[in-house]
Please model this.
Amino acid sequence: MTLAQLIFLAAAAVTLVAAIMVVTAPRLIHAGLWLILSLAGIAVLFILLDNGFLAVVQVAIYIDAIAILIIIAVMLTRAVMSDADRQINRMGLAAAFASLILLAGLLAMVLQVPAASPAPLVEAEVNLDALGRALVDVDGFILPFEVASVLLVAALVGAILVAMAPARGD
Amino acid sequence: MSDPFVIVGQFIKELLIGLGLEAALTAVLLRIVGAAVLGGLVGAAAILTIWAERKLLARIQDRIGPNRVGPYGLLQSFADVLKLITKEFLIPRGADRYVFIMAPLVVVAGVIGMWAVMPLAPGLVGTEINVGVLYVIAIGAIGTLGIMMAGLSSNNKYALLGAFRTVAQMLSYTVPMLLTLLIPVMLAGSMGMLTIVEAQSSAWFILLAPLAAIIFFISSLAELGRTPFDLQEAESEIVAGFHIEYSGMGFGMFMMAEFVHAFTISALFSVIFLGGWQGPGVEAFPLLGLFYFILKTALIYFVVIWLRGTFPRLRIDQMNAFNWKFITPLALVVFMVTAILDKLAVQADFNRTAVHLGSNAIIVLGTLFILRAHAASQRRRKEVADRPQIQHSEAAGD
Model:
């Protein structure tokens, strides 16, 4: 067993355990912190795949932006400093049903992928230049890129509207 | 061959292989040793910078500063560190135990992690990755996470307030910081730190992008949480903010992280805008590069301390308004102008430095003009708003 395999096993184990803790931790804030550990484990997996760019982006976007925003949202809830309520409420059965359907759908999708031989990792050097060009290429991903930008601008404008003080004279 | 660090590395490598270790394992071990040495040196540098900062602040405030322990008080910080290590690390009742213990570790790790990609001298860099700038931002924000963990787990309302303030400040100032970091990336054509340093062999980026440098400096001061942006630990308002409940080395690690962070920001500025180890005679003697790097870093660090000794603390609304209404729009304008002009200058074969300096000067003049007009309109509005009030009170007095 090589060192890389050992690191892979350790990172995968940490990722999975942390992911389970996210849904079982009794306190919301702990769930958020476990989520960060799980995301960090995925960043390690990206590094093992020789893709430093995706690893850094994983940390920058998922941990620094999304996970911290989740924790802020948790901080703004009422019961942030106290122990949580019961974790299972009367919608538990419905939630289990919904997640089973999701699992079935995902499995059906994954099973359709042919079990091809793994791509050679050594040649897959990350070409940032090509990635950047593909994002603004008409034949590439310009439409999803622009749609995402418009979505973000809409979110910004919406946040300003929500936060704006009501007009005087109301 | 003139590089002593490579020689030392070779020596240890051959020693380990001679002891019967595998070459691959030796490479890994060397990496670990290198990381430990770099991290340890950066942490130890904090002891010296604390002394320098206390001494300089004292001079600015017309005091003498530490002068009893050792010559010029040089050993004062060592005594402080010893005291902090021997003190008990208290965990308050009701605190979130593990999160509370982990928070200072996360903060220190985030700061020291930035040094992994810092080019210290030619051939002396922890590791060169092609997304170095992005890495620095990503790792730097881990410190925010640590501060939030400290504030949340302390079971103390002041700590929680400090954490809230930290998050508001750090998240908002990351925006102009990222925007201005994109400018040197554009000028160098790479996100790798080494490439950015090498691209500055003819002209430092502070000449090409002075406005970006200033905005980056201000926003990194805010990320740092130093005066004038030290709202997160404002002593006179929320006592000590997020680290109020920490004692002993827990507190010591927060302090160390803050000082190392200040030093790191200075190093980052000197790498990205002041050419890092670039200087006369570096090609012949690579070690001279380390000297230039430390010299430039110390210069910027002096400015950081100078600002700390000069400015009062901002109010939280001033801090937010300054970011969202002034710095961020300005950074956006500078970014767009630089992006367009850089392409045009290369195509039309103009002098790049002159084009960028000129555009920056025009932006500065425009900004000053807009600010002046804005202030004038504010004054006029205030006068108008004041006038009828006086008449009203006179009418009421009749």
Q: What stands out?
A: Residues 52-75 of chain A form the longest helix (24 residues). The CA atoms of residues 22 and 126 of chain A lie 32 Å apart. Chain A has two domains: 1-80, 128-170.
